[in-house]
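> example.struct
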């Protein structure tokens, strides 16, 4: 029986060929960690100022901002959003800077979720 020449298909997919080296395993992309941004209660910052901060920097409507402000007031702190590290860090800095410029001791912090 005459020997037939091998084709490319025979070389790659032929019987007995191990094709596992030809495909790379798909790596699963991990989601970046998220960070909670929190406002802390103090006895000096006016409630109206906290509501304004929540509306301005976190895009909340007045009712949502008011509810979170009450949570901060009653429980001592409240999570106001969950963001990537860079966004959380920026929001904390914006809130702290804004509070200082208005001479309020409002504290804003972040922690890994």
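> example.seq
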């Amino acid at each position: 029986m005459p020997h037939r020449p091998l084709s490319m298909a025979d070389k790659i997919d032929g019987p007995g060929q191990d094709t596992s080296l030809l495909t790379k395993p798909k790596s699963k992309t991990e989601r970046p960690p998220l960070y909670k941004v929190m406002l802390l209660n103090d006895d000096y910052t006016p409630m109206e100022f906290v509501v304004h901060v929540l509306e301005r920097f976190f895009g909340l409507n007045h009712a949502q901002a008011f509810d979170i402000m009450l949570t901060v007031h009653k429980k001592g702190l409240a999570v106001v959003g969950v963001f990537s590290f860079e966004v959380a860090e920026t929001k904390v800095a914006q809130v702290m800077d804004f509070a200082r410029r208005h001479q309020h001791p409002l504290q804003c912090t972040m922690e890994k979720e």
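> remarks
Strands lie at 34-40, 77-84, 107-112.
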